[in-house]
């Protein structure tokens, strides 16, 4: 009873000691927090100031870069990409600078960025391949807008080159979207990269027809055609003796954009000229010969 009364008057000494310890711990933590705040406040303000001024300088440099790119010969499709990448890298430099002022180790920051970049790279592997392909196409000018190209049997006129894909329009106005990764690694035929193209055609005449006369008719058509370029010289020669015809190869040069005009004109004009000149154009046929001796043997 005496002990209980004493505890009521004086209180529990153990509980009092614990409370005093907690108070002292809290006070020490509060004191350290205040000291840390006083120490970090100037650094934090300096870091904020660096970021504000740094981002302002980044915007200024981006505008200057935009003016430089507009005056340069760099493809317009690359302008936005160059500006975006430059802005991103400059902002990264500003953030790293601000972080170092706060005491964050540069190596730690770079390691975090590397890990994030690796994760993003693995997740967007195919898109990055197309992205890299777009950069190669634009940087090395593998083809340009309005070029006629072919890839794996797909051909069309280039209407748009983006960083991830290229859009073609076919001759019958169908739209084809091709990933730039395929274009960068595939075998591309560019029909309009050169100013001149050679039109190769073959016309067959009958074995009984006059070869020299047929050649003269073709040469006359070549001379009259205003789209045919004289140098390199046109070629008209017998190229083969096939099963049904004597084949004459006609090879003429023209401006690349006049290829199909030449091709279609020659098909019509040579057919009409051959008809007028009595030159036949044979078609595949099979002759069946029945011999009398064979028929008699079959009867026996």
TrEMBL record:
Give Gene Ontology CC terms: plasma membrane
Regions that span the bilayer:
44-61
Q: What topology does it adopt in the membrane? A: Multi-pass membrane protein
The family database entries (InterPro entries) matched by this protein are listed as: LSM_dom_sf, MS_channel_C, MSC_TM_helix, MscS_archaea/bacteria_type, MscS_beta-dom_sf, MscS_channel_2nd, MscS_channel_C_sf, MscS_channel_CS
Domain (Mechanosensitive ion channel MscS): give its ranges. 126-192
Coarse class of the primary localization is membrane
Q: Name one GO molecular function term.
A: mechanosensitive monoatomic ion channel activity
Location within or outside the cell: Cell membrane
Q: Which residues form the Mechanosensitive ion channel MscS C-terminal domain?
A: 199-281
PANTHER family assigned? SMALL-CONDUCTANCE MECHANOSENSITIVE CHANNEL
**Protein name, as recorded:** Small-conductance mechanosensitive channel
Q: Which organism is it from?
A: Andreesenia angusta
Q: Which gene encodes it?
A: mscS
